[in-house]
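Comment thread on ticket #2218

A.B. wrote:
> Attaching the input chain for the structure job we discussed in standup.
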Amino acid sequence: MNSYPFTTLIEFIIAKQADIMEAKGEFSRILYSLGVAAKMINKKVNKAGLVDILGAAGSTNIQGEDQKKLDVFADEQLIGSFKASGEVCGVATEENDEIVVFDHEMSKDAKYIICMDPLDGSSNIDVNVSIGTIFSIYRRITPRGSKPELKDFLQKGSRQVAAGYIIYGSSTMLVYTTGNGVIGFTLDPSLGEFCLSHPAIKTPPGELYSINEGNYLAFPEGVKRFLKYCQEKKEDENRPYTSRYIGSLVADFHRNLLKGGIFLYPQTLSNPNGKLRLLYECNPIAFIAEQAGGKASSGKTRVLDILPESLHQRVPFYTGSANLIDKLEEFL
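C.D. wrote:
> Ran it. Output below, let me know if you need it in another format.
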């Protein structure tokens, strides 16, 4: 009998775990827990139009945003899976005001914490547009055996030991890094397994830009000048560049990661500090971008060098191909 020609996520992690997070099975258990939750979320996403899972849940999160039913489901599934793994002592999520502490026997000695956006782009759920889950893994600062504290979560992005995202689209894909390149796995629905599909993702030089130009008048002047540069006709530089914007961070970033491009979410008059959250959106995406050969900036500094001040801190965010980030910074 012929064996299946692909390497599954767990097979890959077990084979590589000696080089990952200095762990012996810890990361494989965390990834396994993430994969289980992702498969459950994927099933709900795929039949969202057929069951009572669309629409608002009737509450708001700490950001003041309406929580969608699938947001709440994703949050609960991921928290439950990480808690059951025994390798995570606490999580911070977009859907919870404070950190969620795991104080049961299995987790009291765990040395990892996770920051996550359970369902990025959830405003697109009702219109069948790609959405995603973003996660970031750190080693705790406080002693093992004690309860995790806020300072365990307020670490610079450069201290991440792993980060990634799952995109639920025409196929479901897990992309992650442990600081040694970026790897992608695609869910095979016939097997129910994530299979290695992108062994070494590198972001090429880009000629795409992704931004909500409806907010143009509220953008900083440097961003406006950069957009005019992108739109200027100059054939020897392949300009004008192409505009592609979905409105889902994971979907926009994933396209640009593979095709080359820049994603921009600057501060505006109504959001002077930016809108995307540093801990569980910008930091993990920035880590992936850099590991794929790209860059991520707040417009003033490297995103991964920012010391967080609060759990739900927002920052301006620019990420993608190195050539476009360098050009943007000239204008900023």
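A.B. wrote:
> Thanks. Noting for the ticket: The two ends are 60 Å apart (CA to CA).
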